[in-house]
């Protein structure tokens, strides 16, 4: 086994705690690998002898240095668990090996029942990865003296959503791409998505499915009050600015991968660009095969009864 995989971080959904015990023991006893887990998992294991095989982090400073302590990430759950694991790393992200234990997964190609064989293959290497871009988002308040004064950046792997929240008024947003005006959004909201997030909320709002390694940013309206507002796919190198104009009737709300909702008042803006720190996820086969299988199995894409031979012919 390559020495570069000396420490593994395991992130898991709450319902997979029992499975986690088997992974910890197997990695420590059979592979001599140190395992990092989230603090809540470490507490759950206090009464179990497996706790002797795991480490955790104690504070935010330790968490910020996690990328220097961990060589590989293993997730047990669905896509939401992958999103959570990625959010732990604000800078470089180690490769992610995602085991499917959720109801639907486009980023979890590894079958959990074959975890020993799968981890053996990954640890022996080499293996293919899908390099998944993240969005780096900054909220700029109207009260800020200049645009350098922003809140702490937020990294998202799927999408940032700007919606009207509980307001009965349409969302009114001014959108810019670099220095060019794009459009005004009048509707329920707007989704700015990575290509990895193209099979999530953006898809439900009418956006295209895009291979995760295609470099781009999806610009998808949510229920626009217009017959001609179609989704866009923009190049990865642009910077998007979404601003709530001063004449907006209400506030807007931004959420980042479905959490951390922030209110945007008139005059506030959200800046989105591609982060320099993507998320490398391990492939079961290769990036394209895994992507196509996920949309066939997860969405039954283009599932249709086959045409018979007993109909009209030329």
Automatic annotation (TrEMBL):
GO terms assigned for molecular function: ATP binding; NAD+ kinase activity
EC numbers on record: 2.7.1.23
Keyword terms, alphabetized: ATP-binding, Kinase, NAD, NADP, Nucleotide-binding, Transferase
Residues forming coiled coils: none
Pfam family membership, one: NAD_kinase
One GO process term, biological-process aspect: NADP+ biosynthetic process
UniProt cross-references to SUPFAM superfamilies, sorted A to Z: NAD kinase/diacylglycerol kinase-like (SSF111331)
Catalyzed reaction equations: NAD(+) + ATP = ADP + NADP(+) + H(+)
PANTHER family linked to this entry: NAD KINASE (PTHR20275)
Family classification: Belongs to the NAD kinase family.
Name used for this protein in its record: NAD(+) kinase
Protein species of origin: Aegilops tauschii subsp. strangulata (Goatgrass)
